[in-house]
Amino acid sequence: MLSVHNLDVRYGQFRAVQGVSIEITQGDIVSLIGANGAGKSTFLKAIAGALPIYSGRVSFKDQDITDTSSSTRVQQGLSLVPEGRRLFSEMTVEENLLLGKTVQRQGDWDIERIFTTFPNLVKRRHSKTGSLSGGEQQATAIGRALMANPELLILDEVSLGLSPLVVDQVYASIESLRDAGTTILLVEQDLERAITFSQRAICMLEGRIVLDKLTADTHRDEITQAYFGLNKATQQEAS
Amino acid sequence: MINSLVQAILLGGYYALVACGLAFMFQVMRIINLAHGSLAILSAYLVWEITDALALSPFISVLMVLPIMAVVGLLLQRVILERATKGGELLPVLTTFGLAIVIDNLLFQQFGANTRSLAPYLGDLSWDSYEIFGLWVGKLPVIVLLTAIVVIGGLDLVLRFTPLGRQIRATAFDPETAGLVGIDSRKIAGISAAIAMMTVAISGTALGLRGTFDAYAGGPQLLFAFEATIIGGAGSLWGVFMGGIILAIAQSVGALIHPQGFLLGGHLVFLMFLFARIYLNSNVFSLKHWLIKRRHKGDSL
User: Fold this and answer.
1) Pfam families annotated for this entry (chain B) (predicted)?
2) Nearest to B183 among A79, A90, A102 (CB)
């Protein structure tokens, strides 16, 4: 479904993402793991079209999307929930959700279903999103992406800054998406959660992929070693 | 005194009309369009040409100029502004400054130094007036003021309540995230520029109806629009409307004090607001701030 080949993303001279290749097939649930500055968010933003790609190819549903704009990619069914939620804080929850409908893709998601999925938003419907709690903001951000009826949903650090209880709620709602067959690529700092939630784990270190395995075939220690770059053998194999 | 206040408010309506396009473009696209005044004069000439050639009422001609200026706005965005904004904040200012000079001189070459006016095509309307409580109020300035209210009110409603308005606000607030949500920011910028140029067409016509214009009349219009925008604060269109009226009142008060004081009064108030905006908390300018303050005072008493 999503195919990334030898992707390079640069900030000036700095190579934030170096020669990354991944394949994601329909229905996959993939966790992207890595320390701060490993290039995860840069990688996801480049896939979503928010950052220019220096070299390499990205294709989605067998169509090359390397040079298309982010709005075109949303139109094709690829949505990103950006890190830090990035809501339009001077607009209400409802307005933010309606903006997600801009591309008008056909599908099951509409504004009422969002409010059923995230019941904590109902009484906040007409509040400005700047005044919401972290959990409510995250729910709005996910809801906004769902309004476009994406086939591939990319979630960047959904649990950042949320209390453990709220994280559970957010994951419960993502789980219902997983069960509905949406392909999901997400960044998660909590290893335990990443391993239990997803079928596959990809670990990034200094802009490269150092581990890409099914969660069933790997274990916590191996991921931890890859995370800190302790396992030289794995690193050389991947690069 | 009351008479000059009323006349000032009517003049303020014209300033608000010129300023709203400039403010809209700044709000939505973060571009200060220094060709704003010259484009208004260009549309005034267009209206004049059509009115003269087809023997129409200027009110009909302006309807024909609206789509022309919308296309001009779209081209302006695609051909000039889109490239200029890639070069940083200063480049659009320089580019539009250059564009203003080009437009001014092309108009001068085409139409010469004669001043023109749309007033002769209006017949009686150009000097008709209402008598209200012993004051004579010109019909035409009232029409211009009402037009300003309709244009600004209409833009405000579009921005607040339509999907297009929501997309424009989202793009203005955070273009990158707007793209991630699926908003085509390029399309939105084009539409915004087209809308801004349509208001420019209306303001150019208003100028031609109220008085005279020549090829180099763009500069002062830009100046008034800019001053009204700064006084009112670029954040809201109704603020700009108030800005236009405050500017006109300041000019009229200046003129009462000294025959040469018209422009000076406006400039002084503009500078006062400019420095106040730089050095004071922005809350000072919002109505809510003062209402809450009063309530707090009431509580403590």
Assistant:
1) BPD_transp_2
2) A102
Over residues A145-164, the pLDDT tens digits come to 999 999 999 999 888 878 88
Position B236 in a domain: no
* Residue B221, in any domain of the structure: no
> Which CATH class name applies to A2-238?
alpha beta
Domain around B44: 2-216
Taking CB atoms and an 8 Å limit, are B166 and A95 in contact across chains? yes
- The shortest C-alpha distance from A166 to chain B (Å) reads 24
* Domains identified in chain B, total number: 1
B163: chain A residues, CB-CB within 8 Å: 98, 102
Using CA atoms, how far apart are residues A144 and A140, in angstroms rounded to an integer?
6
Closest CB to B166 among A48, A71, A98: A98
pLDDT in tens, A123-132: 999 999 989 9
A88:B176 CB<8 A: no
Point out the least confidently predicted range of A196-210, B113-127, B265-279, B286-300: B286-300
Q: What pTM was computed for the model?
A: 0.86
ipTM higher than the 0.85 cut: yes
Q: pLDDT by residue (tens digit) across B198-226?
A: 999 999 999 999 989 999 999 999 999 99
Provide the pLDDT for residue B225. Answer: 95
- B237 vs B231: CA distance, rounded Å: 12
CB nearest A74 (choices: B182, B185, B186): B182
Average pLDDT over residues B28-54: 94
Best residue of B171, B180, B286 to probe chain A, by most A CBs closer than 10 Å: B180
On chain A, the residues whose CB falls within 8 A of the CB of B186 are 69
